[in-house]
Amino acid sequence: xxxxxxxxxxxxxxxxxxxxxxxxxxxxxxxxxxxxxxxxxxxxxxxxxxxxxxxxxxxxxxxxxxxxxxxxxxxxxxxxxxxxxxxxxxxxxxxxxxxxxxxxxxxxxxxx
Amino acid sequence: xxxxxxxxxxxxxxxxxxxxxxxxxxxxxxxxxxxxxxxxxxxxxxxxxxxxxxxxxxxxxxxxxxxxxxxxxxxxxxxxxxxxxxxxxxxxxxxxxxxxxxxxxxxxxxxxxx
Lengths: 112, 114
Fold this sequence. Notes:
The complex is a heterodimer of chains A (112) and B (114).
Chain A: E1 5-7, E2 10-13, E3 19-24, E4 31-38, E5 42-50, E6 53-57, E7 64-68, E8 74-78, E9 87-94, E10 102-103, E11 107-111
Parallel strand pairs in A: 2-11
Antiparallel strand pairs in A: 1-3, 3-8, 4-5, 4-9, 5-6, 7-8, 9-10, 9-11
Chain B: E1 2-7, E2 10-14, E3 19-27, E4 31-38, E5 44-50, E6 56-58, E7 64-68, E8 73-78, E9 87-95, E10 102-104, E11 108-113
Parallel strand pairs in B: 2-11
Antiparallel strand pairs in B: 1-3, 3-8, 4-5, 4-9, 6-7, 7-8, 9-10, 9-11
């Protein structure tokens, strides 16, 4: 157990639907990062939050949004889902950048 | 902007042989550098990190990496491969700021032959 908890582990949904992925960071970590991992794109940075505030944004689609709550857990919302959104979505947390990330075990999203 | 290039998407070695996984980075500011390992159906696990202290960094499971600024490289090595080392390995770079967003390479799959 890495200390980063992601739920659900697996999600199967239809095109056009909306889903919410949840992440609880390791105790004491203020930063949460979301990454998408797919075979053709590799690990793509989506978005980072630090202590409730958006800190950095990457290749995140407008159909996707995220937030970090006062208890530091984070949610990634994916809407109007397309087949191409099928991927592994990882959450990672850190105290700060130089310490490296602790990753969760990921949510495997399958859009059918 | 920062980027990472991992040379060789697949590396195969015999058990007991030297493991060498190559990583070159590009960064406009002094970088932090990391290696992560990913086993099937698991998240990534931090192997080791360079944060501008010693240039030779030792990590878990007998792995080490050397930061070479002149070559912009951060290659991962292990003197003797074990079957349990078979996994995918990712090199990552981030800027030395509190934002800490990391950019990952495409990964190298290590196969260990008996």
